[in-house]
Design a protein that fits this description.
By secondary structure, the protein is mainly α. The chain has a single domain (3-88), classed as Arc Repressor Mutant, subunit A (Orthogonal Bundle). Helices cover 72% and strands 0% of the residues. It has helices spanning 3-20, 27-36, 41-48, 52-66, 73-88. Helix 2 (27-36) packs across helix 3. The longest helix has 18 residues, at 3-20.
Length: 93
């Protein structure tokens, strides 16, 4: 994938979500934790010390802000790459 493409994906997902998360509800951290745990909601919720329903809400909110359906393989891959790129650049917690 081209560097400009990765930058565009990152900007359309990570930055948009961070800006739209007005209540600092940890949307990016929640999505990253969920993906790192192979999309296992119970496991990710336990790692975040939140209820699974709270995580499910955060994931829906993340998807809405990023305009990405996290049930879609393509969107999921795009978001994962954006989160990884942001992490490599030190832009995420």
């Amino acid at each position: 994938m081209e560097r400009a493409t990765v930058r565009g994906v990152r900007e359309r997902t990570v930055y948009v979500v961070a800006e739209g998360d007005a209540h600092d509800s940890q949307l990016l951290v929640s999505a990253r934790t969920w993906m790192e745990r192979d999309r296992r909601t119970e496991t990710a919720a336990a790692a975040l010390h939140i209820h699974p329903n709270t995580l499910a809400y955060r994931l829906r909110r993340f998807g809405a802000l990023a305009d990405r359906d996290l049930t879609s393989t393509g969107a999921l891959a795009e978001v994962w790459l954006a989160i990884q790129a942001a992490g490599a650049l030190g832009l995420t917690d």
